[in-house]
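Ligand: nicotinamide-adenine-dinucleotide. Inputs:
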Amino acid sequence: MTEVIDCVAIGDELMKEIIAEAESLKARGITPGIATLLVGDDFGAKMYRGQVEKFCEEAGFNYINENPPADVSEEAVVEIVKKLNANDAVSGILPLRPFPEHISDSAVINSIDVNKDIDCFHPSNMGKLALGEPIFPPATPSAVIEILDRYAKKQNIEPKDFYEGAEICVVGHSNIVGKPLAFLVLNRNASTTVVHVFTSMKGNLEKHTNMADILIVAAGKADLIGPDQVKEGAIVIDVGINRVKVLDDKREPVLNEKGKPKTKTVGDVSFDAVKDKAKAITPVPGGVGSVTNRMLMKNALRACKMRQGLE
Ligand code: NAD
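Predicted complex:
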């Protein structure tokens, strides 16, 4: 029978571990801290900022909110980063993108202290990740690995036996999800295939996805993966988050009480259609996203311990 992986339970378990570790650091007079940097008021970035603040509060971390207006100069943003680099209450800095157009991502990212770069944006940390020596593996890809590791452990499979030589296909090649994820599984000696929009445009997507023992999908396209794109007995991890209209039996939009189309959150995988073909699958919502922020906090804990010479 298919296992729907309980990512919410994994996230809760991780949070307990994080709180326990933060408490033991506090007993030694040390408090980890995260600073977010949001330039302007992008809706998605603002939502993410709020979540990070909430989790910091729950875990007893320091939290600093830097939120200059959208018309701030690039130099001023870099100055804010330098100030955070020098602040001992801040273990990790999280730039929340997108930035306004006149602010270059790389100018901001390159100015972050590599030892506070908890979501692995800095080229030096990405380089270490590629070499198999990550200091701070980025939150979303490492959430996927955490979910897979815990799944393997539950089946009594050693990580080595789980990953080595396994056919793993990553759908998506973005700098923040697909590429780092590919490095993480490649460094575990999986036979790694990365496919993307150009693979689909050539009509080759399912040729690759159908080979996968483990299929990880991070494309941001609802219903990209149906049963025809999944091998029988595969493990399917759906990273995608999409907001779509709710449709009735005639595929007409269902309206809410205000007469507007109702919407819901779905992944990239057609969950109901794929579920019975897969050996295990993560749902959306309640999937990878439930683990992602916890991985960021784990990195902040690590940064804090490194700073104190405890790691
Ligand atoms: P992105 O837009 O930067 O990259 C999308 C990738 O998908 C690209 O590599 C693109 O080539 C590929 N792609 C697009 N259409 C495709 C198609 N038809 N066939 C094959 N590949 C296709 O997005 P991202 O930042 O990497 O995020 C991907 C998804 O993951 C989004 O839905 C995002 O919301 C979600 N996400 C989830 C979490 C989480 O914690 N669950 C975290 C970050 C991102």
